[in-house]
Amino acid sequence: MWGAAEAAVTCGLVLLLLVAHQLWWTNRQAREGAERKVEALEREWGERGERRDRGDAPSGSSGAGAGAGAGADADVADEPPPDAVPDSGEAPGHASTRRQKPAPTPDWDQAYAVLRIPRIGIRVPVAEGISKSGVLNKGYVGHYPRTAQPGEGGNFALAGHRNTHGEPFRRIDRLGDGDRLVVETKKAVYTYVVDKTLAQTSARDSGVIRPVPRSLVKAGRGYSAPGYYITLTTCTPEYTSKYRLIVWGKLQSMRPR
After folding, report:
1. Domains in the chain, ordered, with CATH?
2. Which of 47, 131, 157, 165 shows the greatest Cβ crowding within 10 Å of its Cβ?
3. CA-CA distance, 193 to 88, in Å (whole number)?
4. What are the pLDDT digits (tens) for 103-155?
């Protein structure tokens, strides 16, 4: 009986340590790593901007789009078409959104943008791909492959953990109409505005990340016409991965850096 009691206590302590590791330590590590990555990206963009202001070419490049991380955001054309952002609701005085040239795909698992959500105090790197080990477990937000890049027509679709490993999307259930989703790249700042949410859908509901996002499970939820969209996806309910929570928004404005 004494031996069984010792084994039970030991097992309980091990389980407690595992829970502490998952709920506290992974969050701490991932948040610190993600914040360092955001700062590194901002330093890189600042240095590029200074070289551009001086008229210097970036070291090792032969023009826009060269280098390992180049092309993560699209080049801006000189003349915007009048219908660049359908139903944008852009306020007077905001920078106009301009037609974008197709951008090369960023390197796999590479952080190339920053997502800011002022409503819930989020500032997190965006990386290419949605693998757990290479992206999500680092506390990053992952970009779904084969969906649009920031500012492009179609659907810029993102995934993030809701619990553990930095949990950047822990509070996205609090987002609602009019909340801003700001995406920064080395060339521009894109502001999307939330206008639709879907509290719960199947984990296999691929319609929510299509170019015209529309649920295949929940009839009538989503959009019916092409546009410039952003989609945030995460697991729900909390501490499970049974369903998905969806937040959608439309591109409102673009400001060159």
Report:
1. 42-55+75-256 (2.40.260.10)
2. 157
3. 9
4. 678 999 999 999 999 999 999 999 999 999 999 999 999 999 999 999 999 99
Examine the residue annotation and report whether 170 is marked as an active-site residue of this protein: no
For the chain, the 3-state helix, strand and coil shares in percent, each to the nearest 5, are: 25, 25, 45
By mean pLDDT, which of 98-107, 117-126, 219-228 is the weakest?
98-107
Active-site position among 143, 161, 162, 221: 161
- For the chain, percent of residues with pLDDT exceeding 70: 71
CA distances from 179 to 94, 118, 137, 242 (A): 17, 8, 26, 26
Q: Which residues make Cβ contacts (< 8 Å) with residue 71, sequence separation at least 6?
A: 65, 103, 104, 105, 106
What whole-number distance in Å separates Cα of residue 144 and Cα of residue 147?
Answer: 6
Which residue out of 143, 170, 210, 244 is catalytically annotated? Answer: 244
Burial (Cβ within 10 Å: 0-12, 13-18, ≥19) of residue 17: exposed
CA–CA dist 221, 207 (Å, integer): 10
Q: Where do runs of H (alpha helix) occur along the chain?
A: 2-20, 26-54
The verdict on whether 11 is a catalytic residue reads no
pLDDT digits (tens, 9 = 90+) for 43-68: 999 876 655 555 544 433 333 333 33
* Average pLDDT value for residue range 206-224: 97
The catalytic residue among 98, 143, 162, 235 is 235
